[in-house]
Amino acid sequence: INGNKQKTVKRRMKKENFNNIGVLILALFIGYLSLVLIAFLFHTDFSVTGFVISNETASSEKDASLALGRSNQVMEDMLKLGFNVVRVKDLIEEARAEMALKNYERVIAISNEIYNLKQKAIDVQNQIKDITLKIDESKKSGFSTKEAELLLNLSIVEFTLENYEGAEKFILDGISKLNFIAEEEAKILIENLDNLKDDLLKNNLNIT
User: Fold this and answer.
1) Which of 72, 105, 162, 191 matches a 20 to 30 Å C-alpha distance to 64?
2) If DSSP states are collapsed to H, E and C, what string results for 123-164?
3) Which of 25-34, 130-139, 172-181 has the lowest mean pLDDT?
């Protein structure tokens, strides 16, 4: 009987030890899984953040690269239109230097400047055509156009030098001169008409 009791006690102790070991292993396993999960989440968070930053950088670089390509296309378009492109070439070189320094925002800003320069060149070229026509019309009307012609020539010089802002200023001054002369001539014409009217009235009175 004692032997049986001892065997039963030993079995219970083995079972309890086995259960304790099982609980310990399970606790260790759960702890391990928790650490893995935390590490995974931590890594995922940084990976996602890193991806976004990397994406933003890549996007900025891509935009800058596209902007630089557009600038080269604008220069080609200007050459086809007969414009000088020294100023544009200098800006493109500046953009390339900024690209090498990874100043992508500056590259895009320069690209916009180049595009605006092309638009300004087209606008000023049209203004030169307009004032040339105005000068011809003024000549036909017998108005003096010397000052306007001088300003036109100065604007063409500035336009050739790619100083479109300076060229535009001369054109506007030339148009102002033409308008002033036209107004003065109109005043003189009105005065002459008034004088003629007065003379006719006096002649009519004398006749009667």
Assistant:
1) 162
2) HHHHHHHHHHHHHHHHHHCCCCCHHHHHHHHHHHHHHHCCCH
3) 25-34
